[in-house]
Write a structure and sequence with these properties.
Layout lengths: L1 E6 L7 H13 L5 E6 L6 H5 L8 H6 L10 E2 L5 E4 L13 H12 L5 E6 L5 H7 L6 E4 L3 H22 L5 H11 L9 H11 L1 H12 L4 E7 L6 H14 L4 E7 L3 H7 L4 H4 L4 H15 L10 H30 L6 H34 L5
Parallel strand pairs: 1-5, 1-6, 2-4, 2-5, 6-7, 7-8
Antiparallel strand pairs: 3-4
Helix pairs in contact: 1-13, 6-9, 6-10, 8-9, 14-15
Length: 380
């Protein structure tokens, strides 16, 4: 079973949209998929799936001793896709006890499926990080904004410290060293992790080897959502550089998705976007990501080489260019039909604004060249 936790450093970057639509895309290939809403403090995945009504899920299971875990694995209207709701209405589910968390994890590991997709809450709570670490190849959804990328980096940093905490017990030499750093007033968040590992290697090599083994088998995958223009793709490379330089973690780029108002229409229609409009640029991006996951099905125990990771970022930049061209063609076609909506018109204006800004840059460059030519005494 391939376990795919999907997380984000902050809310509002489209994590649940990716989780729901990616699950359906994989199920359409004949693979058995179980989608789990683990955003236990604000579960809304059932709305994106169109699963309305009173759904008993993890909240009911944890508070009702008569229920079995199998009772909350629900059928959906999509072939090969099962769903486990989260139930945000049940009090206390946002902050699980350690025993409750272990109970959920143990039950999830017993689920029979080709893919187990976990839609996690945003942020860096211990519950979210432990669910994310159920797999070494979880997905992180972010957007091109500065805050989204900063929070994605901080999520990875907190994951690194969570692994440190797990690998260095409090009574071990390494654990005592980390505790002493805190007592001395050092903020672990400000510590350069590679240097910290060098020091821990000297005093606790055994547990340091455990830490390095976990890190070496941790290869988070990135999805850049809500893009506006091709140059946004460069933000992913900056995130990768920071992760490698300061955390000792490398990333794989799984793909890009452009912002599209079609997802709002799909949500209002209570349909996942790949069902509402499968030919849209957004839907095609989801299908492309699903294809990549399928291609990598045999790589769980054989992680990608650095050159493969480099290629994944280059490929994502090409996809950003291609998808942008497709958007422009689609919007151009709309201008010559009578069925253009207000949202389509807004999208067209946004795209034209980008083109205008590019033309302004070119004009400014030409002006500066002309000014320099006049200063040098050339006659125009």
């Amino acid at each position: 079973m391939h376990i795919i936790p999907i997380a984000s450093g902050k809310g509002g970057v489209g994590k649940s949209l990716v989780a729901a639509n990616l699950s359906i895309a994989l199920a359409q290939t004949g693979r058995k998929v179980v989608l789990v809403d683990l955003d236990l403090g604000g579960s809304n995945l059932h709305v994106i799936l169109g699963q309305m009504g009173s759904l008993k899920g993890i909240g009911t299971y944890m508070t009702n001793s008569e229920m079995t875990f199998q009772d909350i694995i629900l059928e959906t209207s999509y072939e090969n896709l099962l769903f486990i709701p989260g139930e945000a209405e049940v009090p206390g589910m946002a902050n699980l006890k350690s025993t409750q968390k272990k109970k959920i994890i143990n039950n999830l590991l017993k689920v029979e499926a080709d893919y187990l997709i976990l839609d996690l809450g945003a942020g860096t709570s211990l519950d979210i990080m432990d669910f994310f670490l159920m797999s070494g190849r979880g997905l992180i959804v972010t957007s091109p904004t500065l805050t989204a990328n900063l929070n994605a980096y901080l999520f990875l940093k907190n994951i690194s410290f969570r692994i440190l905490s797990n690998c260095f017990p409090s009574k071990s030499p390494g654990g005592k060293y980390l505790s002493q750093l805190k007592k001395d007033g050092h903020s672990l968040q400000r510590i350069y992790i590679p240097k910290l590992i060098e020091q821990l290697e000297k005093i606790d090599s055994e547990n340091c080897a455990k830490y390095q083994h976990v890190i070496d088998n941790l290869r988070p995958r990135l999805i850049l959502n809500m893009m506006e223009e091709p140059k946004d793709a460069a933000k992913a490379s900056k995130l990768r550089h920071s992760s490698r330089e300061y955390l000792g973690l490398d990333l794989e780029h799984l793909g890009v998705i452009y912002r599209d108002d079609v997802q709002i229409k799909a949500l209002n229609s209570r349909l996942p976007v790949i069902k509402y409009k499968p030919g849209s640029v957004l839907s095609q991006a989801i299908f492309r990501i699903a294809d990549k996951l399928i291609e990598e099905e045999d790589l769980d125990d054989d992680l990608l080489f650095s050159s493969d990771l480099d290629s994944s970022f280059k490929e994502a930049e090409l996809e950003a260019e291609t998808d942008f061209d497709s958007r422009m063609e689609y919007l151009n076609d709309l201008l010559y039909t009578e069925n253009i909506s207000v949202s389509d018109l807004i999208e067209t204006v946004k795209s034209q604004q980008y083109e205008i800004s590019q033309l302004k840059k070119e004009n400014n460059l030409i002006k500066s060249k002309l000014v320099n030519a006049i200063k040098d005494g050339f006659v125009i």
